[in-house]
Design a protein that fits this description.
Strand order of the largest sheet: 4-3-2-1-5
Shape: extended
Helix content: 25-40%
Length: 383
């Protein structure tokens, strides 16, 4: 049994020694009988890879394959994925293929099944990685790390959530890193750090380092998160064809009428260069509901009403700055706000005077300012 590798992938077949006519083979060539149509083809031997017996099609660890090659690995992953087995070991590494749907394989009941197990006794699962790290931590008294790598949309953030849920539930008692707090953290991060991209409808646009500290008995004593907003520039310079961060659409759709009047968002944001508020009613409804959940999440994490209002004020100020824009003024070519009324609104939300806001936004060396303004490179939020 072999794999015939070709431009579109690989096809199963069997290597045959001779053709029906008994014709000899040229040097470096082999004959393969294709399983799907029984056709015999003559190909270069480099285009043929050894295949494993069918019993290996859904093996849990790729390291157990008798013949380890690309076609055999992809075949095993394909068979497992087709049977909703989205996790596969590759030695000490866990491969996860995003099912793009909810599977009933994450729950407190399933977490209890992994507690206390050794790695060799556990099937491939994100919980098995969590249990292995937790067990090694207790036995060696050394820090453990789990690194999630993959392209956008591969499920890194989702697997992190499941991993943290495991760490929150595996100790006998945990009042520090509760499931409610974890859900609140995820809600805040998703709103402020996620955006739709050409590849992913809800892509995480930041990197994070989540640390969980345990005592000698294995109980959680603290947790912390370090967030690296690698794409802060999206706020003022969106990639072509992509929207801004989720929070701006949730804010404009979810603020109540009183807060909108206070933040001067009760009028249209027409002409905003940073984002366009949602127009479809169904999208606005979903965004509004998400915003209400966001406020509840902030309360769970101890964010006071005054602190929440400050966050809303900053976000509203950014919205107004998007309408204010910038333009060169006078013969000197010095930049200033294009829409003064919107700039006044931004200053009001940020609690500063218009003059102070102008100096903060357009504070650039005079020589550089003139050159950039003449080329049209001054942005409303340039540092």
């Amino acid at each position: 049994r072999v794999w015939l590798v070709h431009r579109e992938g690989f096809t199963s077949g069997r290597q045959v020694k001779e053709s029906d006519a008994g014709e000899p083979l040229g040097e470096g060539l082999v004959r393969v009988r294709i399983d799907s149509n029984d056709e015999v083809v003559q190909v270069e031997e480099d285009d043929v890879e050894r295949a494993n017996p069918p019993s290996f099609d859904k093996v849990e660890d790729l390291a157990q394959l008798r013949y380890l090659n690309e076609s055999s690995v992809l075949n095993t992953l394909r068979h497992r994925y087709g049977n909703n087995l989205t996790y596969t070991y590759a030695g000490p590494t866990l491969i996860s293929i995003n099912p793009c749907t909810q599977l009933p394989i994450y729950s407190a009941k399933i977490i209890n099944m992994f507690k206390g197990c050794r790695l060799e006794d556990m099937p491939p699962h994100i919980y098995s990685i969590g249990q292995s790290a937790y067990r090694t931590l207790l036995y060696t008294k050394k820090d453990q790390s789990v690194v999630l790598l993959g392209r956008s949309g591969s499920g890194k953030t989702t697997n992190l959530r499941h991993l943290l849920s495991y760490f929150a539930m595996v100790p006998a008692e945990n009042k520090v890193l509760t499931t409610d707090k974890l859900n609140a953290i995820h809600s805040l991060m998703e709103s402020f750090g996620n955006a739709r991209t050409l590849m992913n409808s809800n892509a995480t646009r930041y990197s994070q380092l989540f640390s969980v500290d345990f005592d000698h008995s294995g109980a959680v004593v603290s947790g912390s998160i370090q967030v690296m907003m690698l794409e802060r520039s999206r706020v003022v310079r969106r990639p072509e064809g992509e929207p801004n961060f989720n929070i701006f659409y949730e804010l404009t759709a979810g603020l109540d009428s009183k807060m909108k009047r206070e933040m001067l968002l009760d009028t249209s944001l027409e002409g905003c260069i940073l984002f366009t508020p949602l127009q479809r009613q169904d999208e606005r409804t979903v965004a509004s509901q998400t915003f209400q959940k966001l406020r509840a999440a902030a309360k769970v994490l101890g964010v006071s009403s005054e602190e929440w209002k400050s966050i809303i004020s900053v976000l509203s100020g950014i919205c107004h700055l998007g309408v204010a824009g910038s333009a060169s003024k006078g013969t000197s070519g010095r930049p200033g706000f294009k829409q003064q009324q919107a700039a006044h609104k931004a200053a009001h939300c940020l609690g500063v005077s218009l003059e102070d806001l102008s100096r903060a936004v357009f504070h650039i060396d005079s020589g550089t300012m003139s050159r950039r303004a003449s080329r049209g490179e001054i942005s409303a939020l340039d540092p």
